[in-house]
Design goal:
By secondary structure, the protein is an alpha/beta fold. The chain is about 40% helix and about 30% strand.
């Protein structure tokens, strides 16, 4: 099961361990949208780790400094980007320099979700206490 939001700037699909966001055509992702993102995380992932998948099916602009804000979210452990074109892939490569947690660029949703699962598996191993 998942929860769906049709926001003015994006569609968001909430799953157990991750969310998928599809920004709408022509939008600008800035600090305002980051605040909305944090609100959704507080509602659905409070005290729980989460990964973010950006499914870029539409053309939009992003202020890369939002990654600096996203990096401060303690339970956000990874970002996966699925660019819809080569120019979107170039943008994602540029944006990568602003985010210093796990960040991957993938050709499809299946690969992005598989990668997110490996990040969660690594988190579980790293969080086990040695007795």
């Amino acid at each position: 099961m998942f929860k769906y939001y049709n926001l003015p700037h994006a569609e968001v699909f909430i799953f157990d361990d991750f969310l998928i966001k599809q920004v709408k055509e022509g939008e600008l992702v800035s600090y305002k949208e980051t605040e909305t993102f944090k609100e959704l995380l507080d509602i659905h992932f409070k005290n729980k780790k989460v990964a973010y998948i950006s499914n870029r099916v539409h053309s939009f602009s992003i202020n890369p400094m939002v990654y600096k804000e996203a990096e401060k979210i303690p339970n956000l452990i990874a970002v996966a980007i699925i660019p819809g074109s080569e120019s979107m892939r170039s943008n994602a490569e540029f944006e990568k320099q602003f985010y210093h947690k796990p960040y991957g660029i993938f050709d499809n949703l299946t690969d992005a979700i598989a990668w997110v699962k490996t990040i969660f598996d690594k988190e579980k191993v790293n969080n086990k206490k040695i007795i």
